[in-house]
Every structure is written in C-alpha cells, then in structure tokens.
C-alpha cells in the first residue's frame, strides 16, 4: 500500500510539471497570435520605409516635395538643370494637375517623379479604403500628367503606420523617407539649411527638401549644397538609382509623423 501511494505521488508531481509547461506554451502561442501584426511588419521582409542606403560609395539623393505653389519650383529646377544634378520630385496630384508644364519639364530634364499623395492628410488616421483611394487617385493623376508610372511614395507629413506601409506595398509602392531633413520649409536663413544638410549628409543618404512656396530659401541654399557636396566627392543620383546600389536601411515604427511638412 505504501508503495502504491509513492507511485501516485511521483506521477502527480510529473503531471503538475507537464501542466505548467502546457500552460506556458499556450500562453506563448497567445502572445504570438495577438502580436502577429507587429511581427509581420518588423520581419525581415515585412513592409517598411526606406530612409537611406548602406554603401561606401559617395552617392546621395536629393529629394523635393511639392504640394502647392510655383514660385519656388522653377528656380530650383533651373539650378538642378544648370548644375546637371539628378534629383527625385515627390508631387501631390492636385499640384501636378495645376502645373502640367512644370511636371513635363521635370520629365524632359530626366528627374525622377514620385507620388506625394492626393490630399495633404495624415494617412495613419485614415481607414483602408481611404488610404487606397488617396494613393490610387494620386497615381492616376501623376501618371496621366507626367506620362510615367510612379512607384515611389512619400507620404504627406511623413506620416504612416504599419497599415499604411502594408497597403502601399500591396499597391506596388516603396515608401521613401529620409535620413537628412533640411528643415527648409521652416527656415528663413539659407545658411541654416546649408549647415544642416552638410553636417548630416553621408554616403547613401536621402535628403529631404521642398519646392513648395513655403520654402522661401531652398533655392538660395541649393547651389552651395551642391557645390560643397561635389567638393567632397559626392555624386547625385535619383532615389531609384540609390536603391539599386546595395542594401537599403529600413525602419518600421508603429507610427511615424513629422508634423506639418509641405
């Protein structure tokens, strides 16, 4: 009788241990299931935004967002053309419709055309249907005006979340951010813009600038930035050419926003 009791005590202990392990496994599965959206986005091949490219080559991409006005775009185009600099322009669809002659000039001069969306809204606050409508409306408009099919997307205000990244990827777009922000839209001093870009620029960098009328000093800072970077051995390429160089630097934050950026 004592031997039988000892037998049940041993099995009861093992059973308790197995039960604890079983509960722990279930708990772990529950966590993985509840966080499956986060895991998919942060996975190696999940949707992500591109900020720069890892390379030892001195290549850099100047990018310009435009959502309104025509006073700043023309002198910026003239500077880039005169200095034979490649660049990428992210255009909002209303601006493209209002200024088809400037869009055609960009195409003729060999600049890359990307989408800056339709309305200047924070996409992270929109539902799935609204996000798709904003991207597709801009896509069709820019394609019609430029004759090119945009495949790069810079979201208004640089605002996105995992849902936006996923939808953009499904629609054939790469979301492009930046590593160096010139803050030209809020600066009244060309020297500040120059110093900010030159102090932060690095091989494989994507530089954010603006050609909207709110950026009053960009056209004054741009020639100096170009000359100084060239003196340092940099070559200017489009974003697509930069991406082709080597592995890109992705970041996938829960939500990314940079305030009001034009």
Keywords:
single chain; 262 residues; alpha/beta; TIM Barrel; 2 domains; four-stranded mixed sheet; 12 strands; globular; disordered N terminus
Task: Describe the protein's architecture and organization.
It is a single chain. By secondary structure, this protein is of the alpha/beta class. It folds into two domains: 2-34; 48-256, Alpha-Beta Barrel (TIM Barrel). It has ten helices and twelve strands. Strands 2, 3, 4, 8, 9 and 10 form a six-stranded parallel sheet that branches. A four-stranded mixed sheet has the order 5-7-1-11. It has a two-stranded antiparallel ribbon with strand order 6-12. Helix 3 (73-82) packs parallel to helix 9 (218-231), helix 6 crosses helix 7 and helix 8 packs parallel to helix 9. The protein is globular and about 45 Å long.
| Structural classification | alpha/beta
Shape: globular
CATH-scheme architecture of the largest domain: Alpha-Beta Barrel
Tell me the number of helical segments per DSSP (H or I, 4 or more residues long).
10
| Annotated CATH topology of the largest domain | TIM Barrel
Q: Give the helices and strands as they follow along the chain.
A: HHEEHEHHEHEEHEEHEHEHEE
- Mean pLDDT across the residues is 84
Q: How helix-rich are the residues, as a percent range?
A: 40-55%
The largest pleated sheet is described as: 6 strands, parallel
**Radius of gyration using CA atoms only:** 25 Å
- CATH homology superfamily of the largest domain: Glycoside hydrolase/deacetylase
Q: Low-confidence runs (pLDDT<50, min 5 residues)?
A: 1-12, 25-44
Number of strands: 12
- Strand percentage lies at 15-25%
Total of domains = 2
Cα separation of the termini: 85 Å
- Report the CATH C-level class of the largest domain: Alpha Beta
